[in-house]
Amino acid sequence: MDTQSIRTRITYINNADAAMAAAITDPRAENCRGFLLDAAGKVVGIHLVHVPMPSARYALYRAEMLDEYQAQGNTVVTVTVLDEDGVQTAERAMMAWPFPELNAPESPVGPGNAKNEFVAESPYSSNVIGPLAFGVYDARGVLISDIIGGYGLPDRRHISGRVTFRERSEVIPEPEPEPEPGDLTGAVARIATAVERLAAHLGA
Description:
- By secondary structure, this protein is an alpha+beta fold.
- The chain has one domain (about 30-200).
- Helix content is about 25%, strand content about 30%.
- The protein has helices at about 5-25, 70, 180-200; strands spanning about 35, 45, 50, 60-65, 75-80, 90-95, 115-120, 125, 130-135, 145-150, 155, 160-165.
- The radius of gyration is 18 Å and the shape is globular.
């Protein structure tokens, strides 16, 4: 086996290990990993995208979808925020859009009630990623959690969801120096490109 083959093999093994670890710890429910219709034509799966923010206080713990049968015509996503011990907190969850840029003039917005219930009525084509994302924000409106994106109404079908964030036991500091605004724009652009590629892979 030549040197190039050995390097390729090592790279593959490292990437495979990382992919397996990500799959094992994937906080998305199984029905949130790809769009799916059942034999009756009902939506029983959507594709959500988890964007980890290791330096943020809260990690995505679980992202779920209530399919057309479970939702019973409702279009509500309920967000729960837990502390490190698993106790529910009063932290403020918010909905932002469009994913992944999250830069709409009105974005992000609060739920308007103490239960962190959001009306998620944005329709989207099932061959792309849904436009609605959820995260935890502090009193200044600064994001302090991972982001989970992809909610909405696929092909205008009525589904609902549940999102749970949990406080990290260890927060990884941001690398120094902090990125310049131009770098942040570039990072958002890279995420957008990745989502476009994913949509193309899904058959857009």
